[in-house]
Design goal:
The protein is 32% helix and 12% strand. With 357 residues, it is an alpha/beta fold. It has one domain (10-100, 142-183, 232-350): TIM Barrel (Alpha-Beta Barrel), CATH 3.20.20.80. The relative contact order is 0.14.
Length: 357
């Protein structure tokens, strides 16, 4: 990856420092003083780029730092790459898919661990929407045990500051509205092929709790207790994994859907209740056919729902911004809404002068 930029960070471009928002040294202590998170910080989701030479990696990480980024979310685990990033003063986080896992050994040996739709199809052999949508069922103890071991091992990696959870949810029962046309769907209601999970474990657990099999409910999508059961299963799993990560002295963060309400409705995420060090909502306005100003309101909703002092960093989808002014508006809106920084997805080269490209 080649990134060319000058030394003007996007933070300075939009005047955050002069606005008094980028208070140097501001720290929010969360889950213990051994894992402080800077009050104002910017992130980027990216790959390891393992084929690059150490000098190329150094230049890449220098470019990130000069662009105003302080934390890198890597889609993979490599202590050597992490060390090079840390030499440039960057935080390192392992960006890890959680419940969406198409590992060959899991699919072959533990097909029963995967979620089952209301229409009776398993994501092990009939994933919804796209071929990689093999979602594990969060109700199963075996799934929790497997993921706890996996995340404990990742958290032990040298030169790593944190573990970042992604796909910590059920499959989309309703897609973001801008994607309906792409999949030739109209999802004005919760359709059976996309409504999860109705596996034997989930049905038995809910029946024990409520006295009724969810498949026997008159209208399963409308049942508040059945919705809450699924929110709770994901929340318990997240909090278990956060404990595992924190035991290694590392930060636990997650990529989540843009607002608490949208997250609960579309993917059963009740992320305001998760015991994380920070959340990174994907406030991708174009996915919801919204204008840039929607980002500020979305951030406000998330900040209001979170416990006091827990930072929210607004995810921005860089390909959505066609001009510097649009990007500036998004960053300003995110901070006005209460975000402690932004997280960039889609490659810095999508913004030209905003990052000096």
């Amino acid at each position: 990856m080649t990134i060319r930029m000058n030394r003007r960070s996007f933070i300075n471009r939009v005047g955050l420092a002069t606005a008094g928002l980028a208070a140097p040294g501001g720290v929010v202590p969360l889950h213990g003083a051994d894992r402080p998170l800077s009050a104002f910080k910017n992130w980027i989701w990216t790959g390891l780029d393992e084929r690059s030479t150490p000098d190329q990696q150094k230049r890449r990480f220098e470019s990130y730092r000069e662009a105003g980024i302080q934390a890198v979310l890597f889609s993979g685990v490599d202590a050597r790459v992490f060390a090079l990033a840390k030499e440039q003063g960057l935080e390192t986080h392992a960006w890890t898919w959680t419940l969406c896992r198409g590992d060959k050994d899991l699919l072959e040996q533990h097909a029963d661990w995967y979620g089952v739709s209301r229409s009776g199809e398993s994501t092990a052999n009939k994933p919804p929407y796209v071929g990689y949508y093999h979602f594990l069922c969060p109700s199963r103890e075996e799934v929790g045990d497997h993921l706890a071991r996996l995340f404990a091992g990742i958290a032990e990696t040298p030169n790593l500051d944190g573990v970042h959870l992604d796909y910590i949810r059920y499959p989309d029962v309703i897609l973001p509205v801008a994607l309906w046309k792409q999949y030739n769907l109209v999802q004005n209601e919760e359709l059976p092929p996309f409504d999860f999970c109705y596996c034997a474990v989930c049905r038995a657990a809910f029946k024990k709790q409520s006295g009724i099999d969810p498949l026997e409910l008159p209208d399963p999508p409308a049942d508040a207790a059945w919705r809450q059961y699924r929110y709770d299963t994901v929340t318990r799993l997240v909090n278990r994994l956060a404990d595992v990560i924190h035991q290694q002295g590392k930060q636990a963060t997650a990529a989540v859907f843009p607002t608490p309400g949208i997250a609960r409705k579309l993917v059963r995420q009740d992320w305001a209740r998760w015991n994380l060090d920070a959340v990174l909502p994907m406030t991708y306005h174009s996915f919801y056919n919204e204008q840039i100003g929607w980002i500020e309101q979305s951030v406000k909703e998330g900040v209001t729902a979170l416990p006091p002092g827990r930072p929210l960093y607004a995810g921005l989808h860089l390909p959505d911004f066609k001009t510097d002014a649009e990007f500036d508006q998004a960053v300003r809106g995110a901070l006005a809404g209460g975000a402690k920084g932004v997280a960039l997805f889609g490659g810095l080269r999508n913004i030209r002068t905003a990052t000096g490209l």
